[in-house]
Amino acid sequence: MSTQEEAIVHEETHEHRDDIRSRMGMWLFLFSELLLFGGLFFMYSVYRFTHQQDFSIASKAMNTFFGTLNTVILLTSSLTMALSIVAMQKAKRGLSIFFQVVTILFGLTFMVNKVIEWSHEFKEGNFPGSEVLAAKPPGQILYFGLYYSMVGLHGLHVLVGMTVIGFMTVFTIRNKITPDNYVKLEAAGLYWHLVDIIWIFLFPLFYLIT
């Protein structure tokens, strides 16, 4: 085989990787997500300051049990996601797959709890556009508007995170994620941790107002 032919074979079989830039790109994306939610948190703070009593009254309609349960679920899911990465680093592929699946199940449980909680709020008429909410003071209307917008956006991020981790699980099964090449799984883990951190801020803002 000639030198030129060897070079062609090498190009075809060599997979170009730049883990440093991949990680940097992921951190930049996460920063943009923080800016998005940061703006929403700032808006919440302004309205909370101008309608303190109404926000406090409206928050009493929230189901603290479901909020606390979902907080525990997401915190535990962050642990299982981290364990999946550690397992991959130690070349325990089966264990990594197990923890990824468990993380997805935790995310699914979070969403089911949220649907149950929102179903109750809808029955009570505490949703934008309802006659019950329209009869309440402006501050309470703002509270529920922010609640559904911010928590709903967070729920969308949870769904995206579950989908991404699902793809990582398939990649792991197909040996596209290995102990020597797990940057994609690591990036998925970072995204999932961000989703959990955002919820840690949302939970006290909407459920624990006094």
Let me know the largest β-sheet. Answer: none
Number of strands: 0
- Approximately how much helix is present in the residues? over 70%
What Rg is obtained from the alpha carbons, in whole angstroms?
22 Å
Distance between the termini: 77 Å
Structural category: mainly alpha
CATH class: Mainly Alpha
Q: How many H/I helices?
A: 8
CATH architecture type: Up-down Bundle
Flag low-confidence runs: 2-14
Round the mean pLDDT to the nearest integer and report it. 90
What's the CATH H-level superfamily name?
Cytochrome c oxidase, subunit III, four-helix bundle
Summed up, the domain count is 1
N to C succession of SSEs: HHHHHHHH
The coarse overall form would be elongated
CATH topology: Four Helix Bundle (Hemerythrin (Met), subunit A)
Percent strand: under 5%
List keywords for this structure.
210 residues, mainly alpha, Four Helix Bundle (Hemerythrin (Met), subunit A), elongated
Describe the structure.
With 210 residues, the chain is mainly α. It has one domain: Cytochrome c oxidase, subunit III, four-helix bundle (Four Helix Bundle (Hemerythrin (Met), subunit A)), CATH 1.20.120.80. Helix content is 83%, strand content 0%. It contains eight helices and no strands. It has helices at 3-13, 19-50, 52-59, 64-89, 93-124, 131-134, 138-173, 183-207. The relative contact order is 0.16.
